[in-house]
Predict the structure.
Amino acid sequence: MNESLFANKSLIREAFQKREALSADPENTAYRLFNGFCEGCRELSIDRYSETAVIQWMSRTVQPDREDLEMLCGLCLDNIPGIHSVLFKNRFAADETWKKGKLLTGESCTNIIREWGVEHPVALQLNKDCGFYLDSALLRKWLLEQSCGKRVLNTFAYTGSLGDAAEAGEALSVTQTDLNKNYLTARHSTQEYIFGDFFHVAASLRRSGRLFDIIILDPPFFANAGRSAKVDQAHNAAALVNKIRPLAAHNGKIIVVNNALFLSGKDFLNQLQTLCGDCLSIGEIIPIPESFYGFTPIDPKVLPADPAPFNHPTKIITLNILRKDERV
């Protein structure tokens, strides 16, 4: 048994108790139950997806044994009302099936969750992560409230939950684009799906003269996208904004999501400030839910970089766009 993990049993139970009130809300059935990075056990996180608890292990050097898994499974079943299955994902396992997750108990994983009253399909064993990012909950709420009558473009859409939130908010149109067809499945006949490299898709949309009222820019931390193009969230977050801003309509908004753990909030804002001028200004910060990190503000000393003025290393901000030609 992992003695460190066993010693943290009371911390995990305490974290569950902090979030006890969340289980009574039928309109929000997915949320983080234990954030080990912030709550005392760095290699562990536990999430709720409706009737399934998802345990994620993220250590390269220390591996849990059977007793550890039984203990964690028991904690979930005994302390979280309504849990009927427990899925375990080992991020650095040699076996790919353990990376995507194996059930410790229960017959199947849930495939539908609710957030802000909206149903979202989930496929918890499709990839190493769960495909539905719980730290983006307030961004989906923002899209629900701001998308009515708007043309929305969701780039790097992955499984498409942000675009789905915009559609639920009665967007005029939703265009979802991603390189990989395996994750972004066409679930809504009212949505447009474009598969391809971000830079090629953005160029094609520019040539067609299309404009959007809301553009979501939520790229991976780092990716090579061709011989001369790459995504680098830590060192060049502003580059992607420049690529996509010609697609923004007059008085439109670009939502930028940056999850680079080693990029401070101050440095991120400084990168965006280099773009500011008569046609672009920084708008509002969209925070991460307090429940995601345990309600207590994160001590910046435990992080590689201080995210302030953001409340979490996942940094989300809106940019206000004006066009010189005033095209809408």
Remarks:
- The first strand starts at residue 30 and ends at 35.
- Residues 28 and 114 are 5 Å apart (CA to CA).
- The chain has a mean pLDDT of 92.
